[in-house]
């Protein structure tokens, strides 16, 4: 049985608002983030889900509970938290200014000063971009392409095992993770170049097929337009 997966990006956080790098580090949802999520939750309140899941980071957990509490047609028990769907890990850059971080990454990639992440990725490619983050990280802890890809593949396998008897599920995860997952599994992406970053509270819809294959069918959609 194929499973429809609603990937929801968590609401805006304090670090989002302050333009700080936020991967495995966490910060609370803002008032705007909560209000935006209420609109997403209301738009999905009549959509039946067999289950709801989330990343194990607090901003995702807080988001999934807003979705659960607002849903009028689903009987959801305890939320299972999946560390495989955490945000991308940025190592020593966690909590730093985003623009300054990308500038350091661009220098490590050999393209000079540049703080526009899309321009960096489109110049060097997604693989070398991830490698440059790890290279620029003084402790070299940031996830590179291979590490992140293994985690994404493992995440899909874990989700597939969990949802074998579920027709539709909701999973709250993170912006860069959703984007990178979509670059890999969306047929409108060439797998190399950057795509638009998903909005807070947006829905990206995927299909987990019986044979374990995964595909993205809708990306970064306002829940009210589904």
From TrEMBL:
Matches recorded under InterPro entries: His_Pase_superF_clade-1 (IPR013078), His_PPase_superfam (IPR029033), PG/BPGM_mutase_AS (IPR001345), Phosphoglycerate_Mutase (IPR051695)
Superkingdom, natural source: Bacteria
Gene3D superfamilies referenced in this protein's UniProt entry, alphabetically: Phosphoglycerate mutase-like
Catalytic residues (positions): 10 (tele-phosphohistidine intermediate), 87 (proton donor/acceptor)
GO MF entry, a single one: hydrolase activity
Annotated binding of substrate, by residue: 9-16, 59
Residue ranges the record marks as coiled coil: none
Keyword terms of this UniProt record: Hydrolase
Keyword tRNA-binding set for record: no
Protein name (database record): Histidine phosphatase family protein
Organism (species): Lactobacillus amylovorus subsp. animalium
């Amino acid at each position: 049985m194929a499973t429809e997966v609603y990937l929801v990006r968590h609401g805006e956080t304090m670090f989002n608002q302050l333009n700080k790098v936020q991967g495995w580090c966490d910060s609370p949802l803002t008032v705007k983030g909560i209000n935006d999520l209420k609109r997403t939750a209301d738009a999905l309140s009549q959509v039946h889900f067999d289950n709801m899941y989330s990343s194990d980071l607090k901003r995702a957990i807080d988001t999934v509970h807003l979705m659960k509490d607002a849903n009028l047609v689903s009987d959801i028990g305890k939320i299972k938290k999946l560390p495989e769907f955490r945000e991308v890990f940025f190592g020593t850059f966690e909590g730093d200014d985003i623009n300054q971080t990308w500038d350091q990454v661009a220098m490590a990639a050999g393209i000079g000063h540049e703080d526009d992440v899309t321009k960096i990725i489109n110049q060097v490619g997604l693989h070398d971009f991830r490698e440059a983050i790890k290279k620029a990280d003084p402790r070299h802890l940031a996830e590179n392409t291979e590490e992140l890809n293994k985690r994404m593949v493992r995440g899909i396998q874990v989700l597939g095992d969990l949802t074998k008897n579920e027709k539709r599920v909701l999973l709250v995860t993170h912006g860069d993770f959703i984007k990178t997952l979509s670059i890999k599994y969306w047929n409108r992406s060439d797998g190399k170049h950057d795509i638009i970053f998903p909005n807070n509270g947006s829905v990206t819809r995927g299909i987990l097929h019986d044979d374990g294959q995964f595909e993205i069918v809708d990306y970064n959609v306002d829940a009210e337009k589904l």
